[in-house]
Amino acid sequence: GFDAVVIESLRGVLTERLAAAEAALAAGVATAEALEADVAARAASAQERRRERDGHVQALARLRGDLAEQRGRRSAAEADVEALRATHSEKVGAVADAQEEVQSLKHSRETLESLATRSAAAPPAEDVAIAAA
């Protein structure tokens, strides 16, 4: 009798503990599945962020290349501007020299025209009397 009661009592305790252990195991499995799903979602999110980062890195590299190219073009353009300024300065000097030459030639022409006009005019009477004597 007494053994049967103890065995039944132990059976009840073991059954309760087994049920509690099965419930804890089921909860652990459910938690593990939820965590696995969360890890998978986070891994997918991290992979997407890596792709975005890689895209940004490539875009940045292209932009840096474009910037270097633009700087090269700018330097070449600045060198061209300086060359044009030097050429312009030379041309301005040549124009000033030509204008001086034109003024000199105008003055010479006016002098020659004045002399030609005086030579073409009739000699004054005094000059004719001196020449006749």
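(the above was protein one; protein two follows)
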Amino acid sequence: GSRRMFCNDWTPLTAATVAGATATVELLLAARADANVVCCTSTSSGLYKSWTALDCARTGDIVPFERDHAKHKQPRHAAIEQLLLAAGAQPSSALPEPRAVNTYGLVPEAGQRPNPCLDDTGMPLRPAHLYD
């Protein structure tokens, strides 16, 4: 069967938020980390979904999924959410979407960023640990 690989953007702030590392989030915000970086998940077909550190704090999920029927069961990081809000953080839905990425078989065009799931020729990456 076919396999779909998802490639995720991360910043130190989103990673610390997901980990629930309040002290690290405080340190990063004190060092002026941008709380409004929009991270995204890509597939070889293009952008899949996007999120910010605030979205991660509100859902407690690695890749926040607002429509998750079990969202109420996800751990939340309320203290981190308050830190982020005090720093002016917004959810991804209130911010511009990330720049488009190239899709399967195509190289990036002007204004696009390279798709992390594709190689320099636009073909899907085949990590050895997934395709042994």
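Reviewer note on protein two: The chain is about 30% helix and 10% strand.
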